[in-house]
Specification:
Length: 204
């Protein structure tokens, strides 16, 4: 029985549920606005406000506690240096929820979870690029490896083409030599015929 247990299970086990809420909070602190179902938004709101309360202190203990839930040093620094000071005058209520109504597919009630104090769009895009740069570098290295392999294969193809060209040149030379030999033979035959004709005329 769940007497006095206020945890919403969200249809998941403990490990999966904790990972889900941490990912929701991570995307909330990066984009400052996310769209999800209403029960998930309510549970993510609890964790997000708890972390912002620690971020307002902006000390080593706060950094370590936030890192327990969000495993990214860059994002932890952004939360403590940029997001936390915005709520220094507030005593709670750092996020808000907008209800959007049921979803068309399964009828689940959707909602938007966002921070009360927002930053500019440019800062949000810069923050996203800063945090996702590690993944972009990995994809670039994979692409570069593919390009290198393709470049290594291309010279082999060129060599084969060069060899074929050489073969074609040899064949063309042989054909030209055969043509010349045929012409010489024809010239010799024609000379012999003319000599024979001249000899017959002289005899007559």
């Amino acid at each position: 029985m769940r007497h006095g247990n206020r945890v919403k299970k969200l249809g998941r086990k403990k490990e999966h549920r904790i990972a889900l809420l941490r990912n929701l909070c991570r995307s909330l602190f990066i984009m400052e606005k996310i769209k999800t179902t209403l029960p998930k938004a309510k549970e993510a709101k609890r964790l997000a406000e708890h972390l912002i309360e620690f971020a307002k202190h902006n000390d080593l203990a706060a950094h370590r506690y936030i890192y327990r839930h969000i495993h990214d040093h860059k994002l932890v620094k952004i939360i403590c240096d940029e997001i936390g000071p915005k709520f220094s005058e507030r005593q709670g209520g750092y996020t808000r929820i907008y209800r959007l109504g049921p979803r068309l597919g399964d009828g689940a009630e959707m909602a938007i979870l966002e921070l009360v104090e927002k930053s500019d769009d440019d800062t949000i895009t810069q923050r996203r690029k800063l945090i996702e740069r590690r993944q972009l570098v990995v994809t670039q290295t994979k692409k570069e490896k593919k390009k290198k392999t393709q470049k290594e294969k291309k010279p082999k193809e060129k060599k084969a083409v060069v060899k074929e060209d050489k073969k074609d040149k040899k064949i063309s030379k042989k054909k030209a030599a055969k043509k010349k030999a045929k012409k010489v033979k024809k010239d010799k035959k024609t000379k012999k015929k003319t000599k024979e004709k001249k000899g017959r005329k002289k005899r007559k």
